[in-house]
Amino acid sequence: MSRTVGRRGGAAAVLLVALATAPLMLNRGDQYTAGLAVIAILFALSYNLLLGGTGMVSFGHAAFYGLGAFTVALVTTKALGNATEGLILAPVIGAVGGLVIGALCLRAVRLYFALLTLAVSQLLYVVAFESYSLTGGDNGIHGIPVPDFLNDPTTSYYFVFAVVAVLAAVLYLVTRSPFGAALAGIRENRQRAAFVGLSVKRYELAAFTIAGSLAAVAGALYAVYDQQAYAGLLYWTQSGIPVIMVLIGGMRTFLGPAYGALFYTVLASKVQNTTIYWDLIIGAILLAVVLALPDGLAGLPARVRALVARYRSSDDARLLIADDVPPQPDDAPLIQMPGIATAGNNAEHAATPAGAILEAHGLVKRFGGLAAVDGVDLDVVRGTVHAVIGPNGAGKSTLFSLLTGQLRPDHGTVIFDGADVTGAPPHRLARRGIGRSFQTTAVFPGLSVQENVRLAVMGAHATTRQPFGTVSRRYQSEVERTLELVGLGDHARVRAGELSHGDQRALELAISLAVKARLLVLDEPTAGMSPYETRRTMEMLRRVIVREGMTLLITEHDMEVVFGVAQRVTVMAEGRVIAEGTPEDVRADTEVVRVYLGDESLLAAGVSR
Fold first, then answer.
1. Other CB atoms closer than 10 Å to residue 442's CB: what's the count?
2. DSSP state of 524
3. Which one is predicted more confidently, 420 or 308?
């Protein structure tokens, strides 16, 4: 880890020195290009806060670049101010524009969000192109007056370099802060981020606002440096430039967009005006980088080191390494969890305290003419394990989505711990103490195991709003305790996406523990697991429930699991509750047997496993 940080720090130092000494080594024309490249670095970094930092694809980032440029142009030519005042005003205009445009575009997600940003950018382009009296129309505004000291090319370059260096440093601190960690979580898994207490839309809007502000500064610097602003700065092709820069440079490292900006700007200055095939050339380069270097130019050194290491490794050495790993029999534990008793029967459960922690009354949810949930009543007693079962299409997952805020009921109420939470969004329910797992595992795959849990802990402590401050060792003791509880202590630095299916389920449980969940809602937690993984998962749940005093609401198709752990069972069919009671009562219910078409698994499953 420290070696990686050292390499990145060394690369940053080399880049900084190279840019700082560029005017001393370049002729006047190349120095001008270097200044444009420095501006492009800020433009690309601002865009990567969206793409690489938050997972948001925008096709209208040039809108803020153009707003910044025209802010300087209009302040100097219409408001009789100076370029410095315009430069100071530009980030404010960009932030306001980002807030307004973001609030509009974030009503949609993914592709529709991207298309909305493109539409807004094109709308602003048309306004600028047609407003001859204000923006100069298709001619733009040229000869923008700047302070005398900026008329010197070298001084102007260093002014641009200083502003970009300061803002890049600030942005770096933001991306490494608790706020930046929250954005990374949203990038990895928006659904899971909501269930660690993050208001996803608000964080995305904040990121969009910051990115818009920085892009506006980049545009303002361009207007000062090149002394012009024109409508083409808002055109959709201009919005494609930071996308290309980020993809070529690498969006998963902070400096990747900077490398891409330098590469693109220098290449464009040498090639773009000498051939009509510029678009073809840059497209081919982009395709080659995406295919051969998924991590961009920033990932090139790591790729070279990996190839060298592979070349040096002999086949015998690889076989020897493989032989050193002892094979594990089917009944060998994947993660040693000493002190866990084998699965017992319902008699092992402690006496349950009176009172329901979760109540649902008359819940109804319709999709068109289909009633997925139709008048469901449910009481989950505090400290118990309550199972909801039923055939496929019974409405179990829809019910869970209503209880956890993913869907809003058409009718009915949901009460959690005495408070009406009907229709409350997932992040608010997470803060109240509801944890959730899904039919498919939902973790932050690109983050390490401990980073997954740390983000959940920060969400529980409401520290993810902090835009500055370190994250790496924050709440470390709490993170380690939680990982040890679920048996993942030895896997803390492993990427979550590299864990086995069973271990990812354990990580989901750790995330719920980290947000201080009192009610854990599990949707088919053993789906896709081997018999051993199923047994281990249920044993782990038993231990956690006993130690942490949690309540468990579960839906599961494995009847052996259901009758082995549940103290109360609710049976659904066609969106309605058809039976409820103890496992023995449900197994003996003739209507339940009829719904399951006489499935012997329901009758054969014992209370003990």
1. 21
2. S
3. 420
| Token pair listed for 71 | 């802010």
252 Cβ contact partners less than 8 Å away, ≥ 6 residues apart: 52, 295, 296, 298, 299, 446
Q: Is the pLDDT of residue 321 over 50?
A: no
- Judge whether residue 389 has pLDDT over 90: yes
Q: Looking at the DSSP assignment, which residues form a beta bridge with residue 137?
A: none
- Contact 464/184 with Cβ under 8 angstroms? no
Q: Which of 148, 171, 162, 151 is nearest to 54 (CA)?
A: 171
Answer yes or no: are the C-beta atoms of 250 and 296 closer than 8 Å.
yes
Give Dmax (Cα) for the chain.
92
* 561 touches 534 (CB < 8 A): yes
Give the single-character DSSP code of 297.
Answer: G
Q: What is the mean pLDDT of residues 287-311?
A: 86
Residues 358-369 have pLDDT tens digits of: 999 999 999 998
Q: Is the Cβ–Cβ distance between 71 and 96 less than 8 Å?
A: no
Give residue 108's region: left, alpha or beta (phi > 0; psi -120 to 50): beta
DSSP-assigned letter for residue 234: G
What value, to the nearest 5°, has the Cα angle with vertex 299 and ends 295 and 300?
125
Question: Which residues make Cβ contacts (< 8 Å) with residue 253, sequence separation at least 6?
Answer: 8, 295, 296, 298, 299
Q: Cα-flanking dihedrals φ and ψ of residue 573, to 5°?
A: -155, 130
DSSP state of 469: S
Q: What is the DSSP string of 374-400?
A: EEEEEEEETT-EEEEE-STTSSHHHHH
pLDDT higher for 340 or 177?
177
Eight-state DSSP code of residue 340: P
- pTM beyond 0.85: yes
**Residue 114 clears pLDDT 50, i.e. is over it:** yes
Query: Under 8 Å CB-to-CB from 323, ≥6 apart: which residues?
Result: none
Mean pLDDT of 27-48: 97
Q: 85's torsion region: left (phi>0), alpha (psi -120 to 50) or beta?
A: alpha
- Which stretches within 55-138 are classed as H helix? 62-77, 83-105, 110-130, 132-135
